[in-house]
Amino acid sequence: MKPTIQNVDLLLSIQPTEVAKYLQSHGWHEQNRMEEKASIWTLPAHSEAEFEIVLPLKPEIPGFALRLYEVVQTLELVENRSYFQILGDLVTQVTNIQVQGIITQLDKLGEAESVILMGCAVGKFRKIQFDLTAANYPLAVKAYQERLPVVCTGDLVRENRCFVLKNIRDFALDESWKN
Questions:
Q1: 15 pLDDT more than 70
Q2: Within a 10 A sphere around the Cβ of 39, how many other Cβ atoms?
Q3: pLDDT value at position 23?
Q4: Strand-pair partners of 172
């Protein structure tokens, strides 16, 4: 049976340096480096088993997505958390992602209309900030005042500790909740 890789685009968007930071902050230790191709991480045994992760370091290496999928699977087992919970902690940028949620804050700063949305992206509930055009701002005001869910597509980027949605398109009220 061949393994199935879920969300290849998300896996390809993960930066190996972010995975290394994550592993280090969760008690893993880098044991060895195979040139600039991969690093081997171990987690000291908490019971009978010691865990090992082979982290690919270059996205252009054949099989990069499969190796990252194996990393996430190992973390699932060790941390007893879901694939999407772990993936959500590792992702720092995703292009062309659909986000849906409720607008919790509106700010009009000169020409820019800034919006804060509490919504689901990459398997986690997040606070996401983005700027809207003047044409879309009235719809955002309506959604905010009436607590209506919205949906839009853009490029999600983690900046510092916040997520920002850039290149917004298809901003609309989310009619799917009515069904």
A1: yes
A2: 20
A3: 92
A4: 151
Checking if the pLDDT of 123 tops 90, the result is no
Residues in the chain: 179
CA geometry: angle 96, 97, 100, nearest 5 deg:
140
> How far is it, in rounded angstroms, from Cα 73 to Cα 52?
12
CA distance 37 to 13: 17
